[in-house]
Amino acid sequence: MTLKVLLADSDATRAACVESSLAELGNATIVRVPAGGSIHDAVAVEAPDVVIVDMARSDRDGLDDLRRVTACNPRPIVMFVDSDDRSFMEEAIAAGVSSYNVVDASFPDVKPIVMAAVAIFRRYRRLEADLEKANASLMERGLVDRAKALLMRQRRIGEPEAYQWLRRKAMNENKRIAAVAADLLASVPSLQQGQASAED
Length: 200
Description:
8 helices; 14% strand; 5 strands
């Protein structure tokens, strides 16, 4: 599997060091952010697996571009800076930087840094997806419970019968039970829904 790396660096010498180190991976394709171009636009065009940003100094204006990437097209972002600035580090991580590295004249081996950043980013995205799935499941369960309470009140039936009603309707309409529950709740006045929720 080829690893596509987007490199944003205005210093040709430092960029060459990064490219030389990544070349040792054997499966890395390196593309550059065009002169005068934005990282956000380059990510949209190139769809890289990882972004490397090398800053000669802490540049808070440059973080705006990274925030746009994180919001619209998240990718693992590795940042190298040549000065230790705790405040800037916190801002960079908040902007979406996965790996923040302070370097001196002797540039470090980039390979393990990049691979670790990619692995951490992928794990974070999996955890984020699992959390979204869990939240969606809780929301669906809440809809079903409210719909059952409404049916029990309106039809004077028990909880098993209310659930069976929702289940049959879902099968007949080829929908998820949660979707049927949402439709049912949307079809009654909001006051009724509130009463049903209070009695659940």
